[in-house]
Structures are given as structure tokens and as C-alpha cells.
């Protein structure tokens, strides 16, 4: 079944929805912003592939009330790529991150994080 709401979102809106869910520690809403076969790199030693792996990886992290993220700036590259400069904050310590998101049909197909 196609999520009409997701299809209608812009790439920036999708990334914002992902950020909002992350900061709300809403695992279901967070995972829903990713495609079923999405790939995330740069947050674990090996790529995280697929919705269930994303759920398993982020579940313990999103249980941490001291974890949050702020997008300092972002740019749309083409119609579907968002490149964001982020501050990931854990227990008051911020880590600068550059994140790229490839958004296809309103869901993140690929995400890559590069930590400073």
C-alpha cells in the first residue's frame, strides 16, 4: 500500500519529519520516514539495510532522553537529495555531522552520515 502523505512530501519535508520523529523519540514515525529497503551508512561499522535493521539499530538509541539533533543548515541538491549540517547532541555533548539523504517518493532511500 502506498502512503499518499509520504508521496506528497518534498525531500526537505521528509528529512524534517525524520528529524522531528528522532527528537520526539518516536521510533515508529522515525522508521516510517525510511523506505523498506533503505540503507544508512556512517552510524555503525557496517551499513544498516532495511526497515527492520533500522528499527533494531535506533530502538535503544531513541530510548535515550538525552539524545537529540539540530539541523544547522541544509541544501536541496537536485529534487531528491538533502545535504544537512547537523549537531547530534548526547548528554549535552554535540557532535558535528554532515548528513546526506536521498529521498525517493517521500521516503529516505539512502542516508549517509559523516561525523567531524
UniProtKB/TrEMBL annotation:
Pfam family, one: SnoaL_2
Residue ranges constituting the SnoaL-like domain according to the UniProt record: 15-110
Signal peptide annotation: none
Listed name of the protein: Nuclear transport factor 2 family protein
Species this protein is from: Microbacterium sufflavum
